[in-house]
């Protein structure tokens, strides 16, 4: 029998994260495009970001044909690495203020699934791209990062918004994320976590 879940954060009622999820306003609009395979994942950080930001939206799917016309005329940036990608730090330093219609589009999923979203929406792949700066360290202790500086979706969004709109303004979004990680570690047991994720060998 499955455990009862919170209809808002989708966590078991005994581990509801809603009290830790803020309601933050941002000048930048955030649109998260989540691959369907991520919706049932226990560590769904995109959902936490969407719940915690007043000016954010989460859409699930691979094909988003409606978005091309919806976003016509808006300044939209795709948060995804590429040869011509501009770092978010460079974008923040390059203007006197954020435009009225700046939009940050964030694919959510593994790198393969995120690329699938771009492949299914060619207009999306043609948008100017943003990348994260170097030297970032993820707090995502339960997944091995695919490369240096790789962050979870909520961490990447917090970094971008803090850089664009003021350092530390969106750190509260990470409270529920940290609690989510701590709960997963507690569920598996400290010894199992250390053995499987830190590579530690139990003492004799």
TrEMBL record:
InterPro entries: DTW, DTWD2/TAPT. Coiled coil: none annotated. Its EC number is 2.5.1.25. One of its GO terms (molecular function) is tRNA-uridine aminocarboxypropyltransferase activity. Signal peptide: none annotated. GO terms for biological process: tRNA processing. Pfam families: DTW. It comes from the Bacteria. It is an enzyme of class 2 (transferase). SMART domains: DTW. Residues 2-189 form the DTW domain. Keywords: S-adenosyl-L-methionine, Transferase, tRNA processing. Belongs to the TDD superfamily. DTWD2 family. This is tRNA-uridine aminocarboxypropyltransferase. It comes from Geopseudomonas sagittaria. The lineage of its organism: Bacteria, Pseudomonadati, Pseudomonadota, Gammaproteobacteria, Pseudomonadales.
């Amino acid at each position: 029998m499955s455990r009862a879940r919170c209809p808002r954060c989708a966590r078991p009622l005994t581990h509801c994260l809603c009290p830790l999820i803020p309601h933050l306003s941002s000048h930048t609009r955030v649109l998260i495009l989540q691959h369907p395979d991520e919706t049932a994942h226990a560590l769904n950080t995109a959902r936490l970001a969407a719940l915690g930001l007043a000016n954010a939206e989460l859409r699930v799917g691979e094909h988003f044909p409606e978005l091309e016309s919806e976003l016509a005329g808006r300044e939209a940036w795709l948060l995804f690495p590429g040869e011509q990608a501009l770092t978010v730090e460079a974008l923040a330093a390059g203007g006197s203020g954020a435009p009225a219609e700046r939009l940050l589009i964030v694919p959510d999923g593994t790198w393969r699934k995120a690329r699938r979203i771009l492949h299914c929406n060619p207009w999306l792949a043609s948008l100017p791209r943003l990348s994260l700066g170097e030297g970032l360290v993820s707090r995502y202790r339960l997944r091995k990062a695919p490369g240096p500086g790789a962050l979870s979706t909520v961490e990447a969004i917090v970094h971008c918004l803090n850089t664009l709109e003021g350092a530390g303004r969106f750190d509260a979004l990470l409270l529920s994320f940290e609690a989510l990680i701590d709960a997963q570690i507690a569920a598996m047991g400290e010894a199992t976590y250390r053995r499987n994720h830190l590579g530690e060998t139990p003492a004799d």
